[in-house]
Amino acid sequence: MSDTPNCWLCARPLGDIVQWHHPVPKAKKGKVKVPIHPICHKTIHANFTNNELARIGDKASVIRDNPAIAKFVAWIANKPADFDAPTR
Prior knowledge:
The protein is mainly alpha-helical. The chain is built from 4 helices and 2 strands, in the order ββαααα.
């Protein structure tokens, strides 16, 4: 069993570069931080506003149910931990 933490969004093991995402944005008084890949972090913020994220809270499953995020998570599933690409 690995002690490497997994990404909050895609559940892949984290690589050398880890970012910390506030499920409820700091601008909306969020305090909790979760570990996440940079590409996953960019994808969340490219698809949701801070207001939407505040309403969703820490429910990663709700974010993964979004069609664009579901497509992204399926695409990234077999990529290396430190994989990065431009976010649309």
